[in-house]
Amino acid sequence: MKQADGLAREMNVSRSHLFALAVEEFIQRRQNEILLDKLNAAYEEPPGFEELEQIETIRQYYRELVHED
């Protein structure tokens, strides 16, 4: 509590405001961790046949764009 009081004085905020800021940051970090876990899970599996076809179609389109001189 002494460190919290010192930091609150240093930041010129009340101790309760300091704790509110800390909880807000903790919640944001946790939400970011959850989002990262979901993204990692979504990209864990290799692309399916349909997705590979779409990727190849896009690659072909850009090859043709580059070589249209």
Biggest pleated sheet: none
Helix-strand topology string: HHH
How many angstroms separate the termini? 70 Å
Q: Please provide the count of β strands.
A: 0
Quaternary organisation of the protein chains = single chain
What is the C-alpha radius of gyration, as a whole number of Å?
Answer: 25 Å
Structure, described:
By secondary structure, the protein is mainly α. It has one domain. 81% of the residues lie in helices and 0% in strands. The model has no long low-confidence stretch (mean pLDDT 93).
Features:
single chain; 69 residues
What does the secondary structure layout of this molecule look like, with pairings?
Blueprint (H helix, E strand, L loop, with lengths): L1 H10 L3 H28 L6 H18 L3
Helix pairs in contact: 1-2
